[in-house]
Amino acid sequence: MEHGLSCPDNEERKEMAENSREERRQAVIEVLNEARKMELHAIVQYMNQHYGLDDMDYGELAGKIKLIAIDEMKHAEDFAERIKELGGEPTTDRAAEVVPGQAVEKIFKFDSGLEDDTIDRYSKFEAVCRENGDTITAKLFERIIDEEQIHLNYFDDIDDHIEKLGKNFLARKAGTPSDTGLTILGFVAQQGGE
Predict the structure, then answer these.
(1) pTM for this one?
(2) pLDDT 10s digits, 75-101
(3) What pLDDT, in 10s, does the model give residues 7-34?
(4) Which of 26, 29, 36, 141 has the fewest CB atoms within 10 Å distance of its CB?
(5) Which sequence spans correspond to the domains of the chain?
(6) Which among 134, 164, 165, 147 has a CA at the least distance from the CA of 67?
């Protein structure tokens, strides 16, 4: 009985498999670039908050946010390296605009929301990777989700302290140094410059 369907020969099956593999690879690159956009936004947002908190003389809080921004830089780089490994081009776009000039009482609740959204979206991105057979990228998302959870916990804790202790908590943070203890040399310093 003829139904108008024919079985693909070996060459057609091979071509179908290659097309499918390319589509799966592109799906993974797409979520990696979406995640990279989120990281690039977080970097600029957190550094903006770092400068603001430092100007308000909350050095300890400013220093911690700077360290978290550096974590986000590492995440953005990890995503870019994986995108390149998969033959894609890392985006330079940010997921959102920076919200400048936030009051200290608003910063940590805002950042908790960013991190919570990030964890939710990265969990979905991890699932996309697994669905498309890319366990390497799925593990990358898994590791970064764990690190984002640490950021979320910190932001939640500080926001809770500000809510419950208010000006008393902030008074204890005022006048603290913003030194992060980082001793990583930049390019110029490594080349023997200052």
Answers:
(1) 0.86
(2) 999 999 999 999 999 999 999 999 999
(3) 556 665 555 556 599 999 999 999 999 9
(4) 26
(5) 15-190
(6) 147
